[in-house]
Amino acid sequence: MSIAAPLIEVRGLQKFFGPPSRAVRAVDDVSFVIHPGETLGLVGESGSGKSTIGRALLRLVESTSGQILYRGEDLGAATGSRMRSLRSKLQMIFQDPYASLNPKMRVRDILGEALHVHGFAKGKEATAQRIAELLKLVGLPPEHAARYPHEFSGGQRQRIGVARALSVQPEFIVADEPLSALDVSIQSQVVNLLCDLRDQLQLTMLFISHDLDVVEYLCDRVVVLYLGRVMEVAPTEALFERPLHPYSQALLAASPKPDPLQPMTHVPLQGDIPSPVNPPSGCVFRTRCPYALEACAQARPELQDLGAGRFKACIRDDVDALSPP
Ligand SMILES: Nc1ncnc2c1ncn2[C@@H]1O[C@H](COP(=O)(O)OP(=O)(O)OP(=O)(O)O)[C@@H](O)[C@H]1O
Ligand SMILES: [Mg+2]
Fold it and tell me: Which atom of ligand 1 approaches the CA of 276 most closely?
């Protein structure tokens, strides 16, 4: 395990949308750390709060409460000018590369603007040089600098999105479903690109996805989220080998792997996700949990440290040994 101080620390993050009387509790008391050089996966069903956490980390949405620390500095306390200078360190790769690139700008102007805003543009020639370097870094020919976004394929556009994020030499990247708008046939190319760049540039990453295969391939550790709360945190290998929280078990069972040596032992998820406006009392997963007890409705389970980097928020210690009822 890493003994270095975390690069990112999230403490008790809450984000509610709408009026207090019927607030959407999108993120409710979430804490985790991301170590330098680590890729942390964030998984959970649609609506579980993944994007909201990613956006809150970069202060693209204001948190309701809690703290986000970057190298120990509270981003919520950063002034406007401090935050502008931190922005280059903290970048985002978006789900839909087309929507996030200005269609009226050539690629060289899109990248040039990012360089300019953060003071990385040092004269015309050096900027053109840097743009050519960035395109090469993401596997595109430098001539493509003269093109407009619509003149690229989806995978190429995502490469431009990646080049733009990297143009300002970030330390930390939030990649929010960077593959889901792409053809399956080119997803693996973009995964490999992200993997190479991460290693080459020593990037720290929060990787948001509901493609569990990609998470297993790319991430060092995983946070499993349900209805705005953390259910389980574990090293990737341990989680996929032996999920300990009933929700993680169900989520992994819903994405079965054709492996005859590992028979399916867990039941996939049943029923609908409750409304985040009026979440169940106690454990929010209890209404869909095959192991729920009366006590699960009483108090919200703490995230317990199980050792070996594993944590789970569940009062039952025996679910791993039980077969589902
Ligand atoms: N601007 C907003 N106003 C009101 N509610 C919002 C807003 N943004 C998100 N929400 C709500 O917050 C909850 C979490 O949304 P979020 O987009 O973070 O989920 P997600 O895990 O990223 O889902 P997906 O996998 O579909 O992308 C959802 O209930 C969503 O409807
Ligand atoms: Mg999302």
Answer: 29
Can you give the pLDDT at residue 263?
A: 53
CB-based burial label for 22 (10 Å; 0-12, 13-18, 19+): exposed
Q: What is the pLDDT averaged over residues 81-98? A: 89
Q: Closest residue (by CA) to atom 13 of ligand 1?
A: 26
Structure tokens at 103: 């269609």
Q: Which ligand is nearest the CA of 225, by number?
A: 1
Exposed e or buried b for every residue in 177-192, given b needs 16+ CB within 10 A? Answer: bbbebbeeebbebbbe
Counts of helices then strands in the chain (DSSP H, E): 9, 12
Q: How far is the CA of 227 from the centre of ligand 2 (A)?
A: 13
Enumerate residues lining ligand 1, CB below 6 A. 17-18, 24, 26, 44, 46-52, 210, 276
* Most informative mutation of 13, 16, 17 for ligand 1 (most atoms within 8 A of CB): 17
pTM for this predicted structure: 0.93
Report which ligand 1 atom has the smallest distance to the Cα of 177: 27
Q: Do 253 and 245 form a contact (C-beta atoms < 8 A)?
A: no
Shortest-distance Cα residue to atom 6 of ligand 1 = 17
Run of H or E residues at 78: none
Domains and CATH numbers, the chain: 1-89+173-181+203-325 (3.40.50.300)
Alpha-carbon distance of 29 to 4, in angstroms, equals: 24
- For 73-87, write each residue's pLDDT tens digit: 999 999 999 998 899
* CA–CA separation, 214 and 225 (whole Å): 17
